[in-house]
Amino acid sequence: MARKPIDWSPSNWPKLLYQFFTSFKVATAVFVLMTLVTLLGTLAQVDQGLYAAKVKYFHSFFFTDKIFGIPVLLPGGLLLMIILTINMILGALVKVRKRWRGAGLLVSHFGMIMLLAGGFVTWAFATDGYMALYPGMSSNRVESYRDWQLEVFPLDENGRAKQSWILPSDELQSIRVDEQRSYDADGLPFHVIINGFTKNATPIPTASIKSSSGKGKEIDGFKLVPQDASKEAEQNLPGAYVAFDPDGEGEGIEAILWAGSYRFDPGEDPMPFPFTIDGQLYGAMLAKKSWNVPFEVRLDEFIFERHPGVSTARNYESRVTRVEGEKETSLEIKMNEPMRFAGYTFFQESFGPSDGKPGEMFSQFAVANNPADQWPLWSLVVTTIGLMIHFCVMLVDFIIRSRRKTAAATQS
Amino acid sequence: MKRLFLSLILPVLALPGIASARDLPKTPLPSYEPWDEEVVHTFENLLVQEGGRVKPLYSVARFTLLQYSGKTTAAFQTADGVDHKLHYAEWLLNVLFKGEVAKDLPVFIVDDSAAVVQIGVSPKSKRDRYSYNELFAGRAKLAELSAQFAEKQKKYQESEKDPQFELGRVEGMILTLGRNISSFEYLLGQFGFARKGELIVNENILPDELIDLAKRLDVVEMLNKMPEMSINQLMQAISTPPGSSQDEIMFSGALRLFFFHANTARGMNLFPPRETDNEVWLSASDLMIEALGDKDARPWAGEQLGKIQSLVDAKNESPEAFAKELTEFSKWQHAISDPRGEGLHSDLEVKMYRGKYFMNSLVCFIFAFVVMAFSWLTPGSKIGKTLIIVASLIALLGLYFNVHGITLRSIIRQRPPITNLYDTVLFITGTAVLLGLLIEYFTRLGVGTLVAILSGVLGMFLSMKYEAKEATDTITQLVAVLDTNFWLATHVTIINIGYAAGLVSAIIGIIYLTGRFVFMLIGRKSKDFFKTLTRMNYGVICFCLFFALVGTVLGGIWANYSWGRFWGWDPKENGALMICLWTLVILHGRMAGWIRDLGVHMNAIVLAIITTFSWWGVNNLGVGLHSYGFTDGVWGALYSTWMIFGAFMLMGVIVWFRERQSKLRKKDSSKTAETLPA
């Protein structure tokens, strides 16, 4: 029987598109490609690290990769998930024939759409950072793991910073190594000129042979030498050539700003680059991008236990006080028992320094703000109910058929 | 056919006989006097703290001998021609109390004689076991090479696996042998301080005058006379040349000897601490060092060390005296540990290992396989059906042993069934067997039983190989993030049920493809049987999807509670996701018309490849937050397994190709018939 030719006229495109997006073939192809992308993204983590692989394979619309040495253009995880969501909404919820036998599938697909929607909301709107405190310290400032910003601020006679001018991380990190950008710093009597930003770099004395790979200018006997990006994106220490120019003529006080001068330990103070313009002392530094939560957290005690006689950590927990204005609430944050408050969640993440003695260690919390925090749980409940209904129907059907077959075989 | 079958089965049945007929390695020991059973029983129930928990010495003995020998028994022949096979507990009893005997027992496995040649020892066969005394001639060279290779291995790890620092096969063997010999020497030297000069390990490193002094030196007495000093001060004192007077030389020698004993007595933590709030048990070495630094601790430490002295003295006195002292020591340990809540399940742990549940389980599955194989001689007959039922019952018994062992392990550590990679092997095997038997219950075709038996044999064999390879305690303490029985019981258990279903699906696929291939070769057809297999596999794939999906999402929810993010594209998470995705490929591909019966089974094998990658492979990528259980040599085993899977898929391709050709031929011939004039 000859197939009916496809009507490609523009008036028929909506129908064709609908047919395309609701087809099982598209769903199957997306699943195959998603498996391939997941595999490639997993294997790539060995060489590229988790963050870089995540951005390339899963947070992208397209990417190129070599498969058996041949470069191939492939759809990224983001594109595939968007297609899958459309496919599920149109195919499994709208187009599907509504009947009791298929109720389980309908419910389970709805649960999966919820899960994907939650993933999208998380990707688009969630923030994550950390807060590290020694016992007795309190803070409401959360810092980013990977993003760095430029802060320039006047210093008072005691060396304390007044309000800062900040070049946001998105802007700063978009500057290439060989690019120059000039900024008019609001409220400050000079321009800030950036002569190249390097994502991972080390300032090396020009006397050292290692400095020869640094192409930038020599400042105070140092050059900024680019380093390979670390597999752990959190470990990258960026650097930039910065000039503070009072008259806007392209010259001024030059400096190498390096993230290594920022604190590595919550007990340390950052070391800004100091300079004086018009008799006023200023400081400038690369600092972690930060934001504030609407309450303070004070670490009262950090408890760290190992299994007896071995170095394996058995438990680490923080006794904290949450301060909201006058109100103080004491609570514990430990592994698998986070603190959820005002849309933020504080998780017991880490501790340090590694050679610290009990009572002298800092505690680090991962701080997340995710509007879709609980969506996976709800979607799991919905999907599980749907799948259980469907598979029970399938199982009963299978058993009845098998029994019939066996009975028929016995009779014959 | 029957003759072919028997020729295949009979050698398998004869294997144990062939193995037992092998000559045991000879030792220069004139004879061997076994320990009294009661003594061994008391000894194996002694408590020791190791790996963060208090456990029976039995477990330490088991994994130590496994580490040295790759086996849990020490078999040898004495000069009087008598064969002996020592259980690991008895072997450790010899090491601690009859060191001269232990040094002659061939327990150090060397996989390639090139390793012993390099240290200047005469090789035996290509792969053989050596005694300490046989290797002693190469001890110095072994120490030198081990240190060299350990440094190379460190550089390899620090350089993120730079190939120039990768150890060669023989180098790896020498390093392992060096570590095992060193560990053995520590065991020999545990109670050296109480032996008064008898059997000093590595005595050639001590000058003659110290060996003489050792015969006269009572460590406890000496401790009481020494000034308070830290271990650093002691090391400084012994590194300073003594004065010229006899007293100064004597004092310096005594200090050196004290340090020697304290050093060799490290590692076996037999003594509960004094303080009730302290959880760290002490070794004889810890007692000596603590007493050295604190005069107030000396009476207590002396009392503890005296217990070992009494044991050693009693052993020299008579077997009865030793049995009595050992019982006293055990009672003393339990009197302290029981109120502290430590080692409460140690007797159960001994019973678990003594019960050999997992070995019994494997034996049952092998036996069930043999019975099942006999059923194939008379397929469809009453006898054949009866044999399948018998095989199913034996497999059920195998499952009982598996579940019993898993339950005991759960009780011992007070945790859900899975806490580490070894547990996953046991659990997945049990689940796969149960699934197979349930399929059999519903279908009564014999296929479910075969699936159960194959899963059981492969899984239990894998568990044993893994235990022997790792040779470390499989009841491990959990890191802080895993310290949650709720998530271990839900996410971990459920995802492993998903893994089991993925593997069962592949076994059904293999049975289907093999069947189709064989039937194609012999020109037989059984459409209904294969249709039933497809429906069976479809059901298992649905089952796999349900558990893999729920398990994966539960894992995400756990990650959200622990780390603040639901999904991080971590390799372990991705592995689980790929299992879900591939089951969805099969289910949707079937509905899209892209996958038919043959495709379902071939894709089930792809599902198993993904499952094994997720189960074992991602752990060995060396990245990710929650990859667990890095194991050497896994990639080789995985590649081999995937090649075997590939071979079955090739069968499927051949069947598909032949069917396609035959359909085309039919089409052509019908066309030709239509065009021919009537």
Largest interface: A-B, 68 and 68 residues
Beta-strand residue percentage of chain A: 35-45%
Task: Please compute the radius of gyration of chain B using only Cα atoms.
Answer: 30 Å
Low-confidence stretches of chain A: none
Structural class by sheet pairing and helices of chain A? alpha+beta
Main sheet specs of chain A: 6 strands, antiparallel
Low-confidence stretches of chain B: 1-5
Number of helices of chain A: 7
* Assembly state: heterodimer
Q: What would you call the structural class of chain B? A: mainly alpha
Report the principal-axis shape of chain A: globular
Number of strands of chain A: 18
Q: How is the main sheet of chain B built?
A: 2 strands, antiparallel
Rounded to an integer in angstroms, the radius of gyration calculated over CA atoms of chain A is 29 Å
Put simply, the count of helices of chain B is 26
Strand order of the largest sheet of chain B: 1-2
How many angstroms does the end-to-end distance of chain B come to?
47 Å
Q: What tags apply to this protein structure?
A:
heterodimer; A: 412 residues; alpha+beta; 3 domains; 6-stranded antiparallel sheet; 18 strands; 36% strand; globular; B: 678 residues; mainly alpha; two-stranded antiparallel ribbon; two-stranded antiparallel sheet; elongated
Walk me through the structure.
- The complex is a heterodimer of chains A (412) and B (678).
- By secondary structure, chain A is α+β, with helices and mostly antiparallel strands.
- Chain A has three domains: 151 residues, no CATH class; 85 residues, no CATH class; 148 residues, no CATH class.
- Chain A contains seven helices and 18 strands.
- In chain A, strands 4, 5, 12, 13, 14 and 15 form a six-stranded antiparallel β-sheet that branches.
- In chain A, helix 2 packs antiparallel against helix 3 and helix 4 runs antiparallel to helix 5.
- The longest helix of chain A has 37 residues.
- Chain A starts with 12 loop residues before the first helix and ends with a helix.
- The mean pLDDT of chain A is 89.
- By secondary structure, chain B is mostly helical.
- Among the domains of chain B are: 149 residues, no CATH class; 122 residues; 167 residues, no CATH class.
- Chain B is 69% helix and 4% strand.
- A two-stranded antiparallel sheet of chain B has the order 1-2. In chain B, strands 3-4 form a two-stranded antiparallel ribbon.
- In chain B, a hairpin with a 5-residue loop joins strand 3 and strand 4.
- In chain B, helix 14 runs antiparallel to helix 15 and helix 21 crosses helix 22.
- Chain B is elongated and about 120 Å long.
- The two termini of chain B are 47 Å apart.
- Classes of the chains: A alpha+beta (412), B mainly alpha (678).
- Chains A and B meet through helix 2, helix 3, helix 5, strand 14 and strand 17 of A and helix 23 and helix 24 of B.
